[in-house]
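Trying the structure run again after the queue cleared.
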Amino acid sequence: MGHVFLRPIEMKLQNDILLTPAQKRAMEGILGGLPAGDVFVLRSAPGMGRTTVLQRVHDAAGGTLVGVREFMRSLAAREPAAIEEAFLDMVEQALAAHQLVIVDDLHLVANTANNYKYPRAHLLDAALTGIMGEAAAWRKKLVFGVEDEAPWPVRRRAYTWEIDAFGVEDFECICRSLLPVEVADRLDYAQIHRFAPALSAQRLKNACNWMARESGIETAGFIEYLRSHDVASNVEIEEVQRVDWKDLKGVDEVIRELEAKIALPFENGPLSAELRLKPKRGVLLAGPPGTGKTTIGRALAHRLKSKFFLIDGTMVAGSGDFYEDVGKVFEAAHRNAPSVVFIDDADVIFEGDGDRGFYRYLLTILDGLESASAERVCVMMTAMNAGSLPAAMVRSGRVELWLETRLPDADARAAILNGMLSGLPQPIGAADSGRLAGASHGLTGADLKNIVEDGKLLYAHDRAGGTALRAVEEYFLEAIATVRANRRSYARSKPPKMTETVKMGFS
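Done. C-alpha cells:
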C-alpha cells in the first residue's frame, strides 16, 4: 500500500494550530478512515476551511492535492466543452504518480458539467465512475472535497466526513490565532457565537483581520462589526419609518407577547443560554387594515436591525423570480439566526399564488424550522383576514403564537391623537383629543393619522387664504367626516381583489 497510511494520525503537524476543533475532527476522521476504503469525501459549507483541512491531510498522509487550478490547466489544452476529458486526464496522471490523490472543489467541475446548457449532460458521472474503478484496481485512494453533496456516483461509494458548524471553541480558536493576545482575552466568545452562530471560518477571519487594526476593541464592538458587515438584513433600516414599541397605542397585550416571546430570546443572550430560550417559530399577527400590523413590523425591524428579513408585496407571487427571491431571504435568515422573517399581508400574497406553490413552499419552511439548524428562525405573518389563510398554515404547531390587533378603543384613540398633536404649534396642537376620540369611533390608527394630516391641511388653507379661523377641533371633525364618507364610497364601489399588482408600502 506504500508509505501513505503508515504516518500516525496523532502526529503533531507544524501548522496544526490553525485548525479549529471542528476542522481537526474532520481531518482526523479522514486520516483514520483511509485504511477502510478507496473513495472518501470531505464536505463543508463555503468558507469553512475545507481546503485547509485537505492540505493538512496531504501533509500527514502524503500523496498529491489537485484542484481547480490544475483542472483549468488541463482544460486549456482542449476544447472548452471537453470538461470530462480534462478532468479525467488530470486525475489519471495524479493516480499514476501517487498512492493518494486529493481532489478539491469537485462541486465546481460538477456544477459546470451539469448546467442545463451543457451539451453532454451526465457524462461527468461516467468519468467519475471510471476514475473510481481505476483507483480501486490500482489499489489507490481518492479523497474529494465538495460543498453540499458530491455527485451521486461518488456519494453512493464514498465514506463521507463533514466540517461541522462551528461552536464557541472554534470561534475562540480562530480569533486567538489572528488577534493580539490582549484583545483576544477581552472577547466573550459565547456571546459572539450566540449573536452569529453560522459564521464561516472565512467571515470570522475577515472580522478578526479588520478588528486587529483597532485599539480597545471589546465584545460589543466586535458584534457591532459583524452586525454591519456580515449579518445583513434585506431591509434598508434607515429607509424604514422609525417607530418604537412605546409609540404603539391600544395593542399593549400584543406588545407584551412580542417582548416576551420574540424580543427577549433575541436580546438577552445570558438568560437565553441559561434557560435555552427560543423565539416562537411561527407567529400570525391578524387584524383589520390600519390596526398597526405593518407598524409593528417597522418597530421590530428597528429593534432587531440586521436580524430582520422582509417578504412583502414587492415580491409578487407567481412571478419568475419569486421563489428564488424568497429562497434567498430564508437562506440569509438561517445563516444569520437568530432572526425574524416578516411576511407582510400574507393573505394578499396567497391570493396571487394561483398554483398554491408559495403555500406549499412555506409549509415546508415552517416544518423545517423544527430542525436544530433552523430553530432560531421565526416566521411572522400579518393578515387582514386570517380566515383567508390556508387551514394547514395556521394549524397548531406551525403557528405557535396567534396575536390579534383590534380597532382602538376611546382611550387608545385619545392616546394616539395626543401623540400626534403634541408636537404641533398652538393653537392646533391644543385640540381636544378627547372630543376627537369620541367622534372617531370605529376608525383605525391609520385613519387617525390621515385625520390629523388632513385637519392640518384644512387649517393651513384657511390661514393662508385669510379666512376666519374656526375652532381647531372643527378642522379635525371635518376630516373625520371625510374619512367616513370615503369608506362608504369604497364599500359601494366593491373594487376587485388586488392580486398580482399589489405592492405594500413597508417603508
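The beta strands are 39-44, 64-66, 100-103, 141-147, 159-162, 282-286, 308-311, 339-343, 377-383, 401-404. Worth checking whether this holds up in the mutant runs.
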